[in-house]
């Protein structure tokens, strides 16, 4: 067990993420005027694809969970006759839709995680590798 200094807090200004380096790699040769500058991070194609994929992912998850909840609220407020339709036993349609809120939210979380692992995480890993190679 190591009793050295603990790692810095992630909230500390000098904290570096695992893929960041604390020292600049020395250039192999001095830069020449003909060298093309590195693309700005905001214009980099992979970063643009990552932002787009993440934005789409957030929207789908948000609209799934919140959309269902808003639909439930609107039905509860404006379609009371529909919500009072008995299904079986003492359960009516309104209660059934209310009970489905939790599974719909869990489904939104599962879809979010699965889509993130398939699309967003590989893009982020590729950008990290490209940054580490520089």
From TrEMBL:
Record carries keyword Phosphoprotein: no
Segments of skewed composition (Pro residues): 1-10, 27-40
InterPro entries: DUF485
Residue span of region Disordered: 1-46
Superkingdom, natural source: Bacteria
Keyword annotations from UniProtKB, A to Z: Membrane, Transmembrane, Transmembrane helix
Transmembrane segments: 56-79, 91-112
Name of the protein in its database record: DUF485 domain-containing protein
Annotated organism of origin: Streptomyces pulveraceus
């Amino acid at each position: 067990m190591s009793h050295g200094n603990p790692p810095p807090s992630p909230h500390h200004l000098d904290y570096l993420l695992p893929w960041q380096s604390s020292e600049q790699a020395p250039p192999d040769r001095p830069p020449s005027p003909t060298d093309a500058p590195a693309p700005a991070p905001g214009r980099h194609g992979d970063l643009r694809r990552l932002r787009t994929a993440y934005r789409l992912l957030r929207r789908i998850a948000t609209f799934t969970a919140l959309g269902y909840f808003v639909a439930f609220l609107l039905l509860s407020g404006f379609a009371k006759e529909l919500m009072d339709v008995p299904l079986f036993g003492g359960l009516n349609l309104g209660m059934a839709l209310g009970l489905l809120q939790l599974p719909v939210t869990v489904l939104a979380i599962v879809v979010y995680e699965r889509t993130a692992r398939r699309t967003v995480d590989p893009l982020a890993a590729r950008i990290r590798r490209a940054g580490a190679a520089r």
